[in-house]
Amino acid sequence: MSDVELAEVESFALDHTLVRAPYVRKIAVEHGPKGDAITNYDIRLVQPNAGEIPTAGLHTIEHTIAGLLRTRLSGVIDISPFGCRTGFHLIVWGEPEAAEVAAAIKSSLEDIAERVTWEDVPGTDAKSCGNYRDHSLHSAKEWCRTVLTQGISVDPFDRSVLA
């Protein structure tokens, strides 16, 4: 082992063999010096180590859900894909319940799966995206349908699927 010092990252301490995706999991709540709360959620769409969303589909989900989610959930700071391509980190102001977050995710995925057209997807040109050629609305729609068919749980270890 080298002498490089790394801080422990909660997501890497999670036993990925025990979780049952799709789910919404509260990772942590941080409080700033003035008491403001910021909550980090694990939005897991695909079972870890069993599959992954292709980059083009994930990229299109990312761009589209960024806008959709802000119309459904107050205080969204950022939603960013995991490098493993199985879901997203969602960072929000405050401490919304997992069920509220899951409902907002579900309705956003429903819009992507059934209503979003290519014209609705933001950031698909060289001026507004760093890799604009790597998008697929077809893939995004298929993956959203797959996730919705499985249901989104509010418990990462138990399939407590949101109605």
Can you put this structure into words, describing what you see?
- This protein is an alpha+beta fold and 163 residues long.
- 31% of the residues lie in helices and 18% in strands.
- The chain has one domain: S-ribosylhomocysteinase (LuxS) (Gyrase A, domain 2, 2-Layer Sandwich).
- It has helices at residues 10-13, 55-70, 98-114, 137-150; strands at 23-31, 37-44, 76-81, 87-93.
- The longest helix has 17 residues, at 98-114.
- The N and C termini lie far apart (47 Å).
- 32% of the residues are buried.
In short:
By secondary structure, this protein is α+β, with helices and mostly antiparallel strands. It is built from 4 helices and 4 strands.
Task: Lay out the secondary structure.
Elements: H1 10-13, E1 23-31, E2 37-44, H2 55-70, E3 76-81, E4 87-93, H3 98-114, H4 137-150
Antiparallel strand pairs: 1-2, 2-4, 3-4
CATH superfamily: S-ribosylhomocysteinase (LuxS)
Order of H and E elements = HEEHEEHH
Q: Count up the helices.
A: 4
The assigned structural class equals: alpha+beta
- Please give the share of residues in helix: 25-40%
CATH architecture assignment name: 2-Layer Sandwich
How much of the sequence is in beta strands? 15-25%
Number of domains: 1
CATH class: Alpha Beta
Ranges where pLDDT stays below 50 over 5 or more residues in a row are none
Main sheet record = 4 strands, antiparallel
Radius of gyration: 16 Å
The overall pLDDT, averaged over residues, is: 95
